[in-house]
Amino acid sequence: FHYCRRGALKIKLGQIKTAKADLNTAICIEPLLLDARWHRHLIYLLQDNDSEALEDLNFITKHKKNHADAYQSKAEIYRRRGDITMALLSYSQAIKYNPQEDETYFRRAQLYESRNDMILAMEDYSQASQINPCRTDALIKHGFFCFENSYWSGAIQNFTILIPQDPQNAEIRMYRGRALIKIGCYQEAIEDFSAAVHLDPNNWLAFYHRGCLLRKVYPHKAMQDLSISVLINDSFNNLNAFLHRGILYTELNQLEEAVCDFRSVLNLDSNAAVAYLNIGLISLRKQNYYEAIRQFGNALRVDPTYIRAYMCRARTYHTVHNLQKALKDLTCAIHLQPTVQQLYILRGQYLYEMKKLDLASFCIQHAAEMNQALGSSPIQQAAVHSFLQNHNKAIQCLVSAVRVKPVPSLFILLGKTQMKAKKSKEAVESFKKAIEILDPLDSLQSLSPEAGEVFYLMGICYMDQKKKIGALGAFNNAVKICPNYADAYYQRGLCRMRLQQAKCIQDFNRALTINPKLFQAYLSRAAFYGIKEKYTKAILNCNEAIKIQPWSLRAYLYRGALKYYKKAYACAAEDFTSVTTIDKNCTLAYYNRAVCYHQLKESKKALKDYGVVLLLGSRKEIDLKVLINRGLLYLELNDYYNALQDFVAATLKFPDDSKIYHALGICHHRLKQLKKAVKAFNHALKLDPILLDAYIGRGNVYMDYGHETGIKQAQRDFIRALHLNPLCLKARINLGYNFQVLGKFQRAWNQFTIALDIDPKCQIAYEGRAVVSLQMGATFPAFHDITAALKLNVSAQLLTNRGVIQQLMGGMHNAMKDYQAAISLNQNFALAYFNAANLYFYDKRFKQANKYYSKAIHLDPNNESAVMNRGITCALLRNGHGALKDFEQAINLNPYSAHAYFNRGNFYSGLKQYHLAEKDYSQGR
């Protein structure tokens, strides 16, 4: 150990060779001295000997799997070697054992970014910034990713967080300004650009964007900004500044300056068609027509599909009376964009001037037909208006038509159009008028199938109005008139389903008999079976629906949900994966798959999917559920810091939910932030004064204060919870433990007994009462209670506790049986090995004791008692080297342990090293 420490000091002094020699000596003496290997690997890194360094790191991680720094160092070596996969694995292991290290997340994010796994990279950057809010480089990466992927709100949020941390960063303000433009916040954008140019007067982009924003409102200020921008940067990157300044000069009638700017654009990019076009327009204003034609020709040479250039050149040709070329250009423009009415009118005008009257008439007539919706018939006009989503105009046309000719077909068409316009009440009236004409005697006999469709449409309207009884009557009439109307049976089934009538399944069956390809009927029948908890039948119907529409998101989503309810979580996750294959932006699929992974204990996959949902953005309710679920998952993983972050985010979205504040209190409690935990529980109780869990949680926090005042406050909270619900087991048991801490064992015993009266199968109550009985000296009742607890649930902890009780009762053989049973049940339970070793030691079976102490230390390296006892055992077995090593390790674990110094002093005394023995006796006093 001393060689190791000397080697470490020499490294700091730059004495690399002697340091390496000391470390090699330390490793030769003690091959398992991991600190020596760690320092030696640092020397190898200085010598660029990555292979040897990696060998030392592998040895460290083999013998100490939670050595986060070793994994991080391995990751750096793999990264230098270009082995990205191994580097990622090592960073992940480092994060697993030290999740609070922001640098590890950041470096892993860089690797993901190099592999183009941007979502994972952004998750890690986000995590790094959450752990260390001052980590501006991670926030910048995340913000730029959001900006580049047009996620404007996310970009704005990141840049807003960055600005207070780095208020002098002009680039961040500039990018936030650009994002604000995208969401229409122009005033705020101007403020950001102004701040950017104030902080960095050489920021040409900020001047450019502010100039573009101010063009219409403050043209002279915009001109000044654009001029400064091109003054700072007159390269190709700032081509748009020249272009916008040229357009602004044109609007201010400064034509020569405008031409200069457009020519500057062309000098930078000879393929900028818009610059040629603007020079041509300026030439046109100067009445220099042939120069204008030449410039428009240049624009078309660069971009042969530039419609505006064709139109401008056509008008210029018309001005110089070259009608043939003007007509040719207009024809090209129409070919490129045949839906523009104005082009046909211009072409007709030019043909008229060319005395081609028939062609001119055809063009004008075509333009008129476009304007009058392909004819003068009201029905045709209504059809076109309806197609163009102008439903109100379509209704007006049809109302005029039915006044002239009140026939059923027009009323039906009017009703359908009103349905498209979401005017279901008016649609019902139109359908009723159609029925009155079709069936004036109201007999429903000898009606045509057309009447069946009318009743069907009436039923749909009633369903929109939530008038289920009226809808049911309309669907009944539809199927009476048309017995083979599959859609009517299906809609009647839906109506009956909402009325909670079991006959709905008969309608779905009949609809599918008539039309076996009716996709919706299969899904509705699956929904019915799902409500009845007949999940197998529901899944079979989803299978049939998927056969009809293999790319249906709803079918896969519903089948996945049904499999989840059937507890087939892996199969459900496969269905949700199919949805993400079809639509990569379906947040519902990612959310549900995350829930499945959560149930399957595949935590990494669940966390990844929860993160994807939050990155994609969804409804407020979904985001809230994601934050709560992910927070609960972090709690299960004992990652209380990240759980805390999620619950804090959840409170921002839904500040009135007391249960979220309760969870927040638990996180603060687990992180030893006791005052914050009490504050969170207080807030939860303010929102819900009868929330029992909040009282119990706050009581547990007060218990952890460790002083009598806190314990009394905890007692009051547990009593309040019992006052609200005397049958609350958690409050009763916590009150029992509270009395136990106060030394009121009889009262504690009473509370545990009441808890067992409430629930005779409460294992915790049996265990608590056993401990209290033991403290009161009643070993047999304690043994009885711990045995009762074991009958309810066998665990290594309970077996070990019973072994301790048996040992106190003098039943050493039975105690050993319990310890061995605990070890058989859980071979990683260190306490069972330790107690069994103590029993072997008591029986003077030192070899077995030594073996079990070693196992206990392997499972719990910080158990100083096990280390010290093994040292005593080694001394008794004449293993002096092992004994000395263990005593030193015990002292390292607890430098204030008098027993460790005393035992080592005895050891030195036995070796007649009285000076060292006296030193240890003095230290231990």
UniProtKB/TrEMBL annotation:
The keyword Metal-binding does not apply. InterPro entries: TPR-like_helical_dom_sf, TPR_2, TPR_rpt, Ycf3. TPR repeats lie at residues 68-101, 102-135, 170-203, 239-272, 273-306, 408-441, 452-485, 624-657, 658-691, 729-762, 830-863. Keywords: Repeat, TPR repeat. PROSITE patterns: TPR (PS50005), TPR_REGION (PS50293). PANTHER family: TETRATRICOPEPTIDE REPEAT PROTEIN 6, UDP-N-ACETYLGLUCOSAMINE--PEPTIDE N-ACETYLGLUCOSAMINYLTRANSFERASE SPINDLY-RELATED. This is Tetratricopeptide repeat domain 6. It comes from Latimeria chalumnae.
